[in-house]
Structure formats: C-alpha cells, structure tokens
C-alpha cells in the first residue's frame, strides 16, 4: 500500500510530497509522489524519513535530570548523561509545576521561547504550537530576527515597503531565464525550494548560462554551473559595486529605467564612479578585496547586460556575513540597473520565497506585538546578561523545541553556559541532542510519520497532505498533544485546543482552504494551484506609476533616509573595509550547509556515518604553506575559541578559504568542545550590523598543527 506523506523539515524546501510504502504496518520505503510531477522533488533527507522514524537512537521515554546542573553529563546510563527515565505523568507534572512556579516568582516574561525550525505544517508548526501554549500560559519572551536570513529581512522592507513579501518568483518562471546567477546559492544542497533544483538542472541542459559565484565548488557548482566565479566570503558587496561600475562606465546600464523605478540610483552611481570621493569602485579596486580578476568581473557585467532575462538568485550565505545588510540592497540595484527587476524569467534580486502560498488555515500562535523580544543571535547574551545588559527581561526558564540550539547558534561555548545558567528548561525532541541533554526535562516527540498534517512549501504555489501513517508508540507524543496536556494541567486546555483533536484541526484548516476537492487532496497528497508563473512585483516593474510600492517614495528605495536614520548606517549601500585589516591576509572560514541534514537536527551519529565524518576543507596551497597534510587533524582558532577537525584537501576551494560544515553535534561535556568540529565554536554573537544578524561566513581563523600550537 502506498500512502501520501510529505517531509515538513524547515530546511529551505519545506513540504516535499512523497509516498510511503507500507507493508504490515511498517513503512518500508519512501518514494517520490508522481502527482507532484517531475519538478517538485524531495532530497535525501525526505527519503530518510523512515530510517529516522525507526532509528534506534530516538528517545524512548521522557527523561528527567537526576543530578544538579553543571555535573558531568557524559556519565549515566545509556550514555544519556545524568538523567533517569520518567513516566509521562511525572514529566508533564514537573513541567507544568516548574513553569507555574517560575512565572509566579519572576513574572511570565522570565520564560524564553527558544523555538523555531523543526517542522513546518499547518498544524504541526514547531513554533506556532509552542508560542500558542506560552501565550495562553502567562506570557513569555520571544525571539526576533533570523539566523537564516536576518540581514536580508531587515533591509528589504526599507527598500520595497510591505511589498517585500511579494518580491519572489515561482520556480516555473526559471524556464524563461536566459541566464541564471546563483550568488552564494548552493540550491542543490541547501535547497531554497523543493522545485528549484530540478528547474535549474533543466535550465542548464537547455543551454541556459548558469553562473555560480561561490568560494567553494559545491555540488551545485559541480552539477549545474556553466561558469564558476570564486569570490572571497564576506566581500560580495564589493564585487556587486564593481559590476555596477562596469555597467555604468561602459554605458550598459538602463539608467532611465532604473531611475523611474527607484530613488537613489543616481547617488549610487556617483558613489560607484567615485564622483563624490574620487575612488572608483571598479574591478581593479575590487580585486584585492574580492580576489576576483578584473577581466572576470567585466565579462560578467557585459554578459548580464547583453542577456535577457537574467534571473539573479541570491543565497542566504552572502548576507550571513559582516555587513551582510548591504548585499541585498545591491542585488536589487543590479537587477534594476540591468532591467531584469520584476521581469518574467528575471527576478527582483530579493529572497526568492517571497510570494504567497495557497490559502489554508493554520494554528494561531496568538502572537502579541508588544511582547518582550530579544534578537535570536543574542539569546545566550540575554540569558547570561538579562536587564543589567540592557535586555528587556531576566530569563530564568526556557521552552526549547525544533532545534539543537547548541550546534546551530553562534558561539557554542557561550550557548552552553547560558543553557546551564537557566533555573529550569524543558525540550521537545526526537533525539538526545546535546541541547536536550542540558535541559531538566526531555519530552520525546512523535516523528513526521506519526502526525497528520498539511504541508506548506517555502516557495511554490501548492500544498501537500499526509495522514497519520504510523501509530505513535507509547513513548512519543506529538507536540500538539504535549502542549494540550500541559494546558489542561495548567487550566487553559479548552483555550488551547478549542475542543479539537489533531484530526479536527486539520479538517478545520482544509475547510478554510482554497483547495477545490478536499477528498482528492487527502487521497493524492498534493494540490497544485492554477497560477504557476508568478513573477514578483511585475506590475510595479511594468508601470511604477499605476502600481506604486508602499515605500515613502512609491519606488524601490536604493537610497533610504529611514534606514540611515534608524541604524546609523548609510543611505545608499556602500563597502566598508572590515576591522582588523584586509581579508586577503587572513584565512577565512565558511560554514556551509550539507545536504544530508537540516542544521543539527536528527540523529547525528547516523548522518556522520553516511558521509564519513566532518572535515575542514582546505586548498592544497594553504595546507602546504602550513605544513599540513590531507587527513591530518588540526587545531582551528577563531574569535570565540578553538575547534579540531581533520583536513580534507580541496582544489575546488578558493585559496585563503577553509570550509567546516555547519551542524555537527557537540559532545555533552563542554570540556570536550575544543576537540570537536562545530564551526560555531569559532563564531561570535557580537559581530553584527544593524540587523543583529549572525556573521557565520568570512570569519578569520588560524589553522595549525595540534602539537605545534597546543
Ligand atoms: S527539501 Fe526539505 S522538505 Fe524537502 S525532502 Fe528535503 S529536507 Fe524534506
């Protein structure tokens, strides 16, 4: 029997439809769902749903901390640290009791919702379910911003007004592109949409020029690019300025078209051409910063101007850097300068997933805009510093769900210290992650195969469905069920559930949807909305007077007085040299996503086994200069501490750049951190711009022999 299912990991794809082959009540295989066609396809993480579900590493019982905080966690039965197994009744009683006590003693704002990622879905949205619970409890402190794309999301509303949420494109429009520029967008591994990988590969096969600007020869570069340009991480804004300079200098830019649709284009041109300060931001100026030869920059600018339409797809990586805010101001400027903004087969240069998904109901998180909030980057600083450090609240407890925050956030040492400083924390998890093992109570949650839900994609005009395929074992409960039971114990069960079980919620959401045939949707697991070639802000681009944006000027604000006033930054995007001297003199770390796991979630030992381990990739010339050999374990020193990893020599990597993949689990004991290989042992919560977004690429590091330096 084949049953529809989807993978709802919050991964950059978001809801890939699939089929589960079920024999004698056991899922034997996960297959593509033919109803979703040849474009909307899952990745290896989706095909691993069954092995994740049946993994022997999954939590089998609620766990309750036995020892005091700070005790060595590597000890204890089953390698799970200093915990004992508990009944659901005891574990839930402990959570409801401690939450109530802490809210009474310190106020409800003392509870932090450390939630996000995890799973998407109309019902089983990790973050909506948790926020709804805490809202109805007595309140909480929330996070604002984003580890993923915080800098882009911060600046885009200044440039585009509320219409920034309409500035993406449907992947089907990629078939109209004559050239595709992937700028730091490793879409075959990081995804950025369930449909983009297949569309991209088809575009390449059809003869479309695919330019990949990336310091690494990623899988995307290897399989999809026809032209690879390596650019030093953290310097993309300088390369963008040099491209603009070439366009302007050689008379290739559509100045009038861009000026009709933006404010500040002329002032940006003055800056780029050096009219204001005598410094031309030409390709020769950019080369020492970016490492890109001037002839490559000019060739790209000329190709961009000579081809139409050009689709620019900026990845998140280019804004997860120091000064990352500037990059997305300049991607929009490039698409305006070349006349590709809002054009079918082109793009605005904004975040690609900014288009509405089909209408469907969803769990209301009961969010309150006046609730105290801290930037997500600073959650450890807020716990450790509280009001004395100018945060709005003193955090005493945390609800943790949807992620292994210890491995996913900046400065893992500080994160561990912060988790240990809490008076009480509990988490909902499938696996005994290092974050879970720093909590007081760990509640095992149901797997995706054990939950009915409606899948909402990150990018695309369609929906997916899955029934409950496997009956949850006695040891696991869905997030919804856990919060509902806690809510009943705390006196607001009716308000949380509104009298509905999970099936009733799904039926309610479907009834509120635009899906014409709900029974067919349930049967087939997929519904494609009629419009499949939406091009963000096309009306504005065609006629900016008739369809103005909601910005003060009605146009794209390449020059933004509000941005300058509110952030102390510059009204037009500019390049500023990094503190500490030129980046070319340093070894720069990037921490790329890998295709087989979403951040740090899942069973890490299994993901390590699939790939053969975590490595520090290094160009052979850099290794030779340091007397290092492939396979050798090295010490990596960054701004917040040290890590270790084995060297993998990689000629496809730009010299001067090293790559350590994001997401490996840290050991339970912080004393062992420095012999592990998480790049977040090397990053900081403090190096940020006005968006307070993380800088996780282009970090200066030193790499050397262990015996020589320790
Ligand atoms: S792209 Fe994301 S949602 Fe789709 S299968 Fe992969 S992990 Fe799951």
Structure overview:
- By secondary structure, the protein is an alpha/beta fold.
- It has three domains: 63-147 and 358-528, Rossmann fold (3-Layer(aba) Sandwich), CATH 3.40.50.740; 151-350 and 537-567, Dimethylsulfoxide Reductase, domain 2, CATH 3.40.228; 583-709, Beta Barrel (Barwin-like endoglucanases), CATH 2.40.40.
- Helices cover 31% and strands 17% of the residues.
- It has a six-stranded mixed beta sheet, covered by helices on one side. A six-stranded mixed β-barrel has the order 21-25-22-24-23-26.
- The radius of gyration is 25 Å and the shape is globular.
- Iron/sulfur cluster (SF4) binds at residues 7, 9, 11, 13-16, 42-43, 45-46, 191, 194, 598.
Comma- or semicolon-separated keywords:
binds iron/sulfur cluster; alpha/beta; Dimethylsulfoxide Reductase, domain 2; Rossmann fold; 710 residues; six-stranded mixed beta barrel; Barwin-like endoglucanases; six-stranded mixed beta sheet; 26 helices; 3 domains
